[in-house]
């Protein structure tokens, strides 16, 4: 089995049988999204150098390892970002918690 | 006092009410809508810069007649500088924003009345009410007044989707309302906390209270208020985690409605973003949060766009991604960065409207927005295909179109501010935007037509083509003469950067 077939198989596994058929176009789109996501997050993490160089190196290495071990991420991410009200509500509550924590404790204790 | 300033809000409200009364009188709606819509871009061009104090209650400092009859402890103190009435501020940046909103509104209304067989008075009502609300959000210096119109804009958005008669529109509109019923009250709570701490809802007065030490800037209630207002900002503009519902909303509206809803999102983004920068710029974290959320919106929006198979959903996610560029400009906090961000906002409103209306032609002729079922449309309408192609180039930042100039400015601003990484990410995501658009363009226009695809024989309404041409011409002009546009934005950007510094 070559690399491309492995990728298609993995996408099929994540999408499940009920979803749309996996075509060449959808596979290449998924691959592009995957590479873009990983590259963007890693480059964004380099900005941590403004806080601490060692923190930046550790963060980049940890996230790189996490990404490499859990690929393909985009399939899961797409599945997660669906139109279900309960999943949207879940992420909204998470976001509210993060924002309030950042502003309240972040400004008082940093 | 300049009476044209409040008229920019009042006229669209009156137009909305009048058109609603004409419901089911098709010909009258068509004619009246076009005539009334012409006022939208005209009013900001005719109005002079200045302030409007509702009820005529200007600050005592500016009204010697009234202050001469008052005791000195009022006229001599800080009370004399406060704004007792709702204040609208109309400067060069607001003029440009309201003009662009009016232009997109005019073209959306123009397109809608000719694309639908029976023009709906209710649909026109929703568009006009949304435009009125958004104009007020851009002009007001009163944060509670901003919230009221923020809610009206959200209701108009839901109304546009409900009236659009697209499969699944009711469910999506209901979800948007439910999520709004969580986020909007939290925004109101943030405003209430701000009022509780500062005793004021006028933004200029709140800033004065903070800068003069009347209020402790590290007051925990104030920090909580900032967090809640930021959360409301995420909801209003469709930033993560609200990007999924926002892109769904875009895909469940008629093309003209989607064009308007994305304009509402962009202008809400910059209006509330400016409020956050003005009031909370003393918190270094506020800029970091704006940068972080914008980065997330860019990455999630654009990576999600490429894996979509529905064209409207794809443009919806791209629109969310493009919001991130604007936020990067605001988050950098420099005058050049903020100018670039605001310029990008103006460009995005026009380009996304062009793409929604352009791809709307596909929907008009086939009734399908799923790219897997489309193809071969280049033969049917090469002219529209060319206009859409140029719109896609503009969104990706291909020179000499307008977004090239704003994205280039943003990259320069990020390097100047010491964040070259942001420049790298913006370039990378622009390339992916280009690829996403070309993928959609190929599947819709260039590949062979599927055998089972039925295309209506009706010709495309001239109104649609005219709207596309006008939007493209403005994109080209803004791309060739960016300094003309940025000169309108620089005064606001400089004042905001002064506050940040």
Short description:
The complex is a heterodimer of chains A (110) and B (501). Chain A is mainly alpha-helical and 110 residues long.
- Fraction of residues of chain A in helices? over 70%
Instruction: Output the structural class of chain B.
Output: mainly alpha
Radius of gyration of chain B: 22 Å
Quick one: which chains have the greatest interface?
A-B, 41 and 51 residues
Looking at the structure, what is the overall shape of chain A? flat
Number of helices of chain B: 22
The SSE string of chain B, one letter per element, is: HHHEHHEHHHHHHHHHHHHHHHHH
- Could you give the count of β-strands of chain A? 0
Number of domains of chain B: 1
Mean pLDDT across the residues of chain A is: 84
**Using DSSP, what is the number of strands of chain B?**
2
- Please give the alpha-carbon distance between the first and last residues of chain A: 53 Å
User: Major sheet of chain B, described briefly?
Assistant: 2 strands, antiparallel
Lateral strand order in the biggest sheet of chain B: 1-2
Shape of chain B: globular
Query: How many domains make up the coordinates of chain A?
Result: 1
Question: What's the quaternary structure here?
Answer: heterodimer
N-to-C series of helices and strands of chain A: HHHHH
Q: What does the main sheet of chain A amount to?
A: none
Structural account:
The complex is a heterodimer of chains A (110) and B (501). Chain A is mainly α. Chain A has one domain (3-109). Helix content of chain A is 78%, strand content 0%. The N and C termini of chain A lie far apart (53 Å). The relative contact order of chain A is 0.09. Chain B has one domain (4-61, 79-500). Chain B is 75% helix and 2% strand. In chain B, strands 1-2 form a two-stranded antiparallel ribbon. In chain B, helix 6 packs parallel to helix 16 (335-366), helix 12 crosses helix 15 and helix 19 packs antiparallel against helix 20. Chain B starts with a helix and ends with a helix. The model of chain B has no long low-confidence stretch (mean pLDDT 90). The chains are: A mainly alpha (110), B mainly alpha (501). At the A-B interface, helix 2, helix 4 and helix 5 of A face helix 9, helix 11, helix 12, helix 14 and helix 20 of B. Chain A: It comes from Methanobacterium formicicum. Chain A: Keywords: Membrane, Transmembrane, Transmembrane helix.
